[in-house]
Hints:
By secondary structure, the chain is an alpha/beta fold. Helices cover 41% and strands 17% of the residues. It has a domain at 5-10 and 66-108 and 232-448: Rossmann fold (3-Layer(aba) Sandwich), CATH 3.40.50.1100. The structure holds pyridoxal-5'-phosphate. Pyridoxal-5'-phosphate binds next to helix 5, helix 11 and helix 15.
Amino acid sequence: MQDIKINLEEAEIPSHWYNVAADLPTPLPPPLGPDGKPIGPDALAAIFPEALILQEVSTERWIAIPDAVREVYRQWRPAPMFRARRLEEALGTPARIYYKYEGVSPAGSHKPNTAVAQAYYNKQAGISRLTTETGAGQWGSSIALAGAMFGLTVRVYMVRVSYQQKPFRRSLIETWGAEVFSSPSELTHAGRSALAHDPNTPGSLGLAISEAVEEAAGRADTHYALGSVLNHVVLHQTVIGLEAQAQFKKIGVTPDVVIGCCGGGSNFGGTAFPFLMDKAAGKEIRLIAVEPDSCPTLTKGRYCYDNGDSAGLTPLMPMYSLGHDFIPPGIHAGGLRYHGDSPLVSHLHHLGLLEAVAVPQLATFQAGVQFARCEGILPAPESNHAIRVAIDEALRCKEQGEAKTIFFTLSGHGHFDMAAYDRYFAGQLEDYSYPEEEIAAALARLRPVE
Length: 450
Ligand SMILES: *Cc1c(COP(=O)(O)O)cnc(C)c1O
């Protein structure tokens, strides 16, 4: 009888993160300053500690995880992997479906994997405060948790639409001792100017980032922490894929398809990048990033140089983008409402090593509910995107009589997202169409990456 849960011992928590920058077929294009010239690592020194800046530009394949970080990881890692046998049965598919469950962390998602590391390196560098943005509240909770673990003060700018939709995320952030403000706020220049422009704006991640960066850049005791997109963030998330590989090895299975939902790209990159080593070794393996139809960065965006935030305070990063002033509709998968994407994910997608699929909101909730009714776990709306495509792949296997092995990361639980499920059950959720002309205009202003 095969186990449903494939578990590892605490001693099997990875000792190193995997840095995909060591294995790129062509190097990652550098970030650019406002003058269009490549910026050096020191341009980030006002807001990040040196250790993280070094990771950001490192091309070393394996980077040791500090003992103090592994010690905190032990609180919930290794994360379990499950065989989705009841879902397979319900679908009547010959495919085998496995998922890695990151909802076991205290904050309920994969985000503490990097939050803990970032808090550690900032503490080591003598920093006492962190500012950050949060969309759905997952990242704000995670950095509040990490701040509590390492004794740092944390201030969170929370995108207004989520601040209103998810009051209990706010309470969770406060429980762990951090402050949380609705963004745009009156506390920063970027916030005040956005409010002057449109007092009813739902806010956006790009705008909240501007507020947090502005504050961090203006205070010597304060640094900024980003929950996704950057190379060092994706690096920290490779514990997901590395553990999954060890779990598959234990049962003598290798996946044919690896799936992750993709907002800024950290859980997808963290899941998929270690499997690129298998791909390079000749294994046929598909790596699929799933994004919302309403914010289709990889599938409809353009590979260009764009700012990471809406006010244009960050360097220009080479990424698939919808334009930094794009404000996506207020869908419930708040963690997937980002205008750009990780430069590493973007580069690898541009090289054809990763696939991308966009799915509409209603179909993702339908998949998440089907999953919950079979497997019991209630997924985050973001994770429902990965589940949608895993189910679609399993149904395709059924049609074609193929027994593929499908693997996806269940990036978080949806216990704080019940208002979204309520609205789904009440028939109040909609599919948003993608504002083609608006985005085309924004994209025309951006400089393509050659
Ligand atoms: C934040 C979040 C995401 C999206 O972020 P990525 O950096 O793309 O991984 C996905 N799922 C959950 C549960 C999240 O909290």
